[in-house]
Amino acid sequence: MQELEDRIAKDGTVKPGNVLKVDAFLNHQCDVALFDHMGAAWAKHFAGKRVDKILTIEASGIGIACLAARHFGNVPVVFAKKAQSINLDGEQYSTTVYSFTKQKEFPVIVSKKYLNAGDHVLLIDDFLANGKAMQGLISLCKDAGAVIEGIGIAVEKGFQDGGKLLRDEGYDVDSLAIVEAMDAQTGEITFRH
Ligand SMILES: O=P(O)(O)OC[C@H]1O[C@H](OP(=O)(O)OP(=O)(O)O)[C@H](O)[C@@H]1O
Ligand SMILES: O=c1[nH]c(=O)c2nc[nH]c2[nH]1
Q1: What's the confidence (pLDDT) of residue 119?
Q2: Backbone dihedral region of 75: left (phi > 0), alpha (psi from -120 to 50 degrees) or beta?
Q3: Does an H or E element contain 102, and which?
Q4: pLDDT tens, 75-104?
Q5: Model pTM?
Q6: Ligand 2 nearest-atom number relative to CA 15
Q7: What pLDDT does 87 receive?
Q8: If you take atom 3 of ligand 2, which residue's CA is the nearest one?
Q9: Residue minimizing CA distance to atom 10 of ligand 2
Q10: Of the ligands numbered here, which is closest to the C-alpha atom of 157?
Q11: pLDDT of amino acid 85
Q12: Which of 26, 90, 158, 174 has the most CB atoms in a 10 Å sphere around its CB?
């Protein structure tokens, strides 16, 4: 998606440790017009698929998933929580994932009320790096008996292996920008096309 690549080139910065900082528009301050265009792009890619529900993971997936849902007939957005809460009652599906930016393991929890056998689910997230967050959501869907129709990602770091692993497993992964390489010293970012 040219608009997203242009924005990454303009406002993204490369940090040591394979971190692309895009918090000016994607995962701290949010550009909702851009999110809306991202939702339209996923709707085009996944046209013809049955999507009953969008599943994402807190925190950064929530905003983009909500805008995306507007392009899928206002389907509900469910986000997996990364902490137990008194607000999480009843039975739950849960697993754990290692958080790329927080560098620690988190629980990943969805109430059984909001993920059901036979649900056709689109998974959405802001970043795909090693694929841990997506593997966690896939595990919850498998436990629930939900059908994964596809995976929409804003920014995939193609030099990390999450995307390859998911595609090798047969998932339809639509990443709107795939970073082929980035250099923390020069700041250079190149995209895969
Ligand atoms: O493919 P992976 O290696 O799993 O990396 C991608 C995940 O990392 C980030 O989550 P993180 O927990 O770092 O931050 P967040 O709370 O801002 O979403 C991002 O939002 C993705 O969910
Ligand atoms: O802001 C972010 N930058 C990244 O490079 C990254 N990788 C996973 N999650 C990420 N979030």
Answers
A1: 98
A2: beta
A3: none
A4: 999 999 999 888 888 899 999 999 988 899
A5: 0.97
A6: 5
A7: 85
A8: 20
A9: 127
A10: 2
A11: 84
A12: 26
- 2-191: which CATH topology? Rossmann fold (3.40.50)
Among all ligands shown, which has an atom nearest to the Cα of 61?
1
Low-confidence ranges of the chain (pLDDT < 50): none
Q: Which residue has the tokens 């040219």?
A: 2
Q: How many CB atoms lie within 10 A of CB 131?
A: 22
Q: Confirm or reject: Cβ of 178 under 6 Å from ligand 1.
A: no
34 assigned ligand-binding residue = no
Ligand 1: does its nearest atom lie under 6 Å from the Cβ of 150? no
* Protein residue whose Cα sits closest to atom 1 of ligand 2: 21
Beta-strand ranges (E) seen in the chain are 13-15, 19-21, 53-57, 77-80, 92-99, 104-111, 120-128, 147-157, 173-182, 189-191
pLDDT at 161: 97
What is residue 116's three-state secondary structure?
coil
Residue 187 belongs to what H/E stretch?
none
